[in-house]
């Protein structure tokens, strides 16, 4: 069968009137029913990206993560499982808003010197949203104008990243969902055997009524015992509602359907299972263990293993402005690990983390992973010693690089990495929560006329525009003990965010509220 031309295929996916689309921090994201033409066009772009890279496999993921059920979104994944390079983001926006698609495609083809005949495979996945199946068909329609599409149906976002990488790099793993499961389970079980752990890893996970629920069920084994709550993917209106990582982190409280036993660890995924947070209760008091805690737990665990293995490696932790000031202090002063700051969004953190042998990056919201350099992995694999303790640490490190998703933050991988770090160090969740105390903090959302008027510098910690505003914030902050506050435009919503922290909860709330007042004229 001959391929449809761009104009024939595109006529099936008309652009809605009076809507502008922008490829933001996490791709396109808006009401799902508005996205058909955009997803079709992203399909076209993904096959152009494949052609540009000589036929490498590219990915398209249809998801709106932790957003409400009626939203949806789409993003493009590059061959090694990384985000679409920022240089290509304007092309995505150009195509999504184009009124003359053929001309705009021709323009991109000419500018990037693309031979469209080179377009190869694009793998596609979606989360569990109602608009997913229709958008998946739109993506396939777009991809098939120039390239080939392979749909994997429902997937977590990190599984899609894994599949893209394994299609291009067979050593990374078998290019199937089963390959993803096998890689994680066998590495987790081997680590448990190395450390002689007999009791299975156990935890209850709130899956946000999203795709993480069915995927977690594929991962049980004799040594893995996970109970899943909020697993109703049939009720499309339940996704992320009163549950999930974003709900728990933002409201600092338990999700629906978790009735905790004191001192027992629980965790929440977000709707596409790329974020995870943990928590427990202590005399019924809720204690959150967020991305900052995950970063410090994993970094100190890996450091200990490096010491046992007698391997030297340079490690860095990457945070964003949202990281609690006390976590940064603990990392620098107690763990003695350098900290870098980048703007919000995985693409920024990921690239910074690649500068280290071991780059640990987590956003406070629970999105993150640990990257091990190829050089270090081969050194770990080729080092052997006669000391059983050193050998065990070496093997554990190598296996950890397989448990932890090297392409992107992954709730499932991060869950196992955390459970292993706790079990092997004989550390309880209460010990973990006591690693450091946290400064009271609060997040505000302020709707302004034009969020793009807010321009930041210094990893979003300071405003350069509107002129004069930062000086006023500085003057307020100076009045509070350990006060810190920043204002940044959201990359996913039409609003600006205000984060405040201070030595006391009252001061933190007061500081945040006063900075919000400063925003009233805007
Ligand atoms: C996106 C980002 C997430 C970030 C969030 C911030 C990716 C894959 N996702 O969801 O990392 O925390 O945006 O949202 O990069 P905001 O700009 O609306 O505050
Ligand atoms: Zn997500």
UniProtKB/TrEMBL annotation:
Residues 177-277, 290-425 form the Phosphoacetylglucosamine mutase AMG1 domain. Binds 1 Mg(2+) ion per subunit. Gene3D superfamilies: Alpha-D-Glucose-1,6-Bisphosphate, subunit A, domain 3, Alpha-D-phosphohexomutase, C-terminal domain. It is an enzyme of class 5 (isomerase). One of its GO terms (biological process) is UDP-N-acetylglucosamine biosynthetic process. The keyword Calcium does not apply. Pfam families: AMG1_II, AMG1_III, PGM_PMM_I, PGM_PMM_IV. Substrate binds at residues 363-365, 488-492, 497. Residues 57-86 form the Alpha-D-phosphohexomutase alpha/beta/alpha domain. Its cofactor is Mg(2+). The active site is at 65 (phosphoserine intermediate). It catalyses: N-acetyl-alpha-D-glucosamine 1-phosphate = N-acetyl-D-glucosamine 6-phosphate. Keywords: Acetylation, Carbohydrate metabolism, Isomerase, Magnesium, Metal-binding, Phosphoprotein. Pathway: Nucleotide-sugar biosynthesis; UDP-N-acetyl-alpha-D-glucosamine biosynthesis; N-acetyl-alpha-D-glucosamine 1-phosphate from alpha-D-glucosamine 6-phosphate (route I): step 2/2. GO terms for molecular function: magnesium ion binding; phosphoacetylglucosamine mutase activity. Its EC number is 5.4.2.3. PROSITE patterns: PGM_PMM. InterPro entries: A-D-PHexomutase_a/b/a-I, A-D-PHexomutase_a/b/a-I/II/III, A-D-PHexomutase_C, A-D-PHexomutase_C_sf, A-D-PHexomutase_CS, AMG1_II, AMG1_III, PAGM. CDD domains: PGM3 (cd03086). Residues 463-517 form the Alpha-D-phosphohexomutase C-terminal domain. PANTHER family: PHOSPHOACETYLGLUCOSAMINE MUTASE. Catalyzes the conversion of GlcNAc-6-P into GlcNAc-1-P during the synthesis of uridine diphosphate/UDP-GlcNAc, which is a biosynthetic precursor of chitin and also supplies the amino sugars for N-linked oligosaccharides of glycoproteins. Catalyzes the conversion of GlcNAc-6-P into GlcNAc-1-P during the synthesis of uridine diphosphate/UDP-GlcNAc, a sugar nucleotide critical to multiple glycosylation pathways including protein N- and O-glycosylation. Belongs to the phosphohexose mutase family. This is Phosphoacetylglucosamine mutase. It comes from Ogataea parapolymorpha (strain ATCC 26012 / BCRC 20466 / JCM 22074 / NRRL Y-7560 / DL-1).
């Amino acid at each position: 069968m001959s391929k449809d031309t761009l104009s024939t295929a595109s006529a099936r996916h008309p652009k809605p009137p009076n809507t502008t689309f922008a490829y933001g921090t996490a791709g396109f994201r808006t009401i799902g029913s508005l996205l058909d033409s955009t997803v079709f066009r992203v399909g076209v772009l993904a096959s152009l990206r494949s052609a540009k890279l000589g036929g490498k496999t590219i990915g398209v993921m249809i998801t709106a993560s932790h957003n409400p059920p009626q939203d949806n979104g789409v993003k493009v994944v590059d061959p090694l499982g990384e985000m679409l390079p920022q240089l290509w983001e304007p092309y995505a926006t150009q195509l999504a808003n184009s009124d003359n698609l053929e001309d705009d495609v021709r323009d991109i083809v000419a500018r990037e010197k693309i031979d469209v005949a080179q377009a190869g495979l694009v793998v596609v996945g979606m989360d569990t949203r109602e608009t997913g199946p229709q958008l998946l068909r739109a993506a396939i329609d777009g991809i098939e104008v120039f390239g080939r599409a392979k749909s994997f149906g429902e997937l977590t976002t990190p599984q899609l990243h894994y599949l893209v990488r394994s299609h291009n790099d067979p050593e990374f793993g078998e290019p199937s969902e089963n390959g993803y499961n096998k890689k994680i389970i066998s590495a987790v079980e081997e680590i448990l055997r190395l450390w002689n752990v007999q009791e299975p890893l156990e935890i209850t996970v709130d899956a946000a009524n999203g795709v993480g629920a069915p995927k977690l069920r594929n991962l049980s084994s004799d040594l893995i015992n996970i109970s899943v709550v909020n697993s109703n993917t049939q009720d499309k209106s339940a996704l992320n509602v009163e549950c999930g990582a974003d709900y728990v982190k933002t409201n600092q409280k338990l999700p629906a359907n978790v009735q905790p036993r004191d001192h027992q660890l629980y965790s929440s995924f977000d709707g596409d299972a790329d974020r995870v947070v943990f928590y427990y209760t202590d005399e019924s008091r809720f204690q959150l263990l967020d991305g900052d805690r995950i970063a410090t737990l994993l970094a100190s665990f890996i450091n200990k293993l490096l010491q046992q293995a007698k391997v030297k490696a340079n490690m860095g932790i990457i945070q964003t402005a949202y990281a609690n000031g006390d976590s940064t202090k603990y990392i620098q002063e107690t763990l003695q690990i350098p900290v870098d700051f980048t703007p919000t969004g995985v693409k920024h953190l990921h690239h910074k983390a690649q500068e280290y042998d071991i780059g640990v990056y987590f956003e406070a919201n629970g999105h993150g992973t640990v990257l091990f350099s190829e050089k270090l992995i081969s050194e770990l694999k080729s080092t052997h010693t006669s000391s059983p303790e050193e050998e065990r640490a070496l093997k554990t490190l190598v296996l950890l690089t397989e448990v932890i998703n090297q392409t992107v933050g992954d709730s499932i991988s991060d869950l196992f990495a955390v459970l292993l770090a706790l079990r092997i160090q004989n550390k309880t969740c209460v010990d973990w929560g006591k690693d450091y105390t946290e400064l009271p903090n609060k997040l505000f959302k302020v709707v302004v006329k034009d969020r793009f008027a807010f321009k930041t510098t210094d990893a979003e910690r300071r405003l350069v525009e509107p002129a004069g505003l930062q000086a006023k914030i500085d003057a307020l902050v100076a009045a509070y003990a350990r006060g810190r506050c920043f204002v940044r435009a959201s990359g996913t919503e039409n609003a600006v965010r205000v984060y405040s922290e201070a030595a006391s909860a009252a001061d933190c709330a007061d500081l945040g509220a006063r900075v919000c007042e400063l925003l009233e004229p805007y």
